[in-house]
Design brief:
By secondary structure, this protein is an all-alpha fold. It contains 4 helices and no strands. α1 packs parallel to α4 and α2 packs across α3. It is elongated, with a radius of gyration of 13 Å.
């Protein structure tokens, strides 16, 4: 859940930084405008981690996953 939250925040900030309409931003991300609205409103449960990573890539973000052994 934390990873999904972090990706939602990053993608939302990127989209808001584009200074464009939701219609154009949704086309750029390859999703519908209502789906983009869900993302911008932080509805994390509506997105899988896989989907969010794809959206981050389409938004021009680089995602780095760091997996370590438990302490």
């Amino acid at each position: 859940m934390t990873m999904r939250s972090n990706v939602v925040i990053a993608v939302s900030e990127a989209v808001r930084g584009w200074d464009t309409t939701q219609a154009r931003a949704s086309r750029r991300l390859g999703i519908t405008q209502p789906r983009l609205n869900d993302l911008l409103r932080g509805k994390i449960n509506k997105f899988s981690l896989d989907t969010l990573l794809a959206l981050a890539s389409r938004a021009g973000l680089k995602v780095k996953l760091d997996v370590r052994s438990a302490a």
